[in-house]
């Protein structure tokens, strides 16, 4: 039987070879070439990190959270490069969700 870490590393390599993964890489490279798209992308990532920190600390979003989300949504939709990145990332997410379900199935069975 293969070492579980060898299997995980092989999965890592195969994920990187997926056309959907490569499409996300290409979309991110295109963002990096455009200062406006890069600024929107970085600002959104900072916002997401802020939300994640708050969630980890058990805090609710502060201020005009819905307004900020609407603002980001408009900025993302108005910039083709950023919008394309998130569309490609969502396509890759289908694989990742399926893999997560498969990998964690044995753990879920233990909890039933």
TrEMBL record:
InterPro entries: Com_YlbF (IPR010368), YheA/YmcA-like_dom_sf (IPR023378). Gene3D superfamilies: YheA/YmcA-like. SUPFAM superfamilies: YheA/YmcA-like. Belongs to the UPF0342 family. NCBIfam families: PRK13676.1-1. This is UPF0342 protein HZY93_04990. It comes from Streptococcus danieliae.
């Amino acid at each position: 039987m293969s070492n579980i870490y060898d299997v995980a590393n092989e999965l890592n390599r195969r994920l990187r070879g997926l056309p959907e993964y490569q499409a996300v890489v290409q979309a991110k490279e295109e963002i990096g070439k455009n200062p406006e798209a890069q600024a929107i992308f970085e600002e959104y990532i900072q916002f997401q990190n802020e939300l994640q920190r708050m969630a980890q600390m058990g805090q609710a979003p502060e201020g005009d959270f819905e307004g900020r989300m609407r603002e980001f949504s408009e900025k993302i939709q108005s910039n083709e490069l950023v919008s394309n990145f998130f569309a490609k990332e969502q396509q890759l997410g289908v694989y990742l969700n399926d893999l997560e379900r498969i990998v964690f199935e044995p753990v879920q069975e233990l909890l039933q």
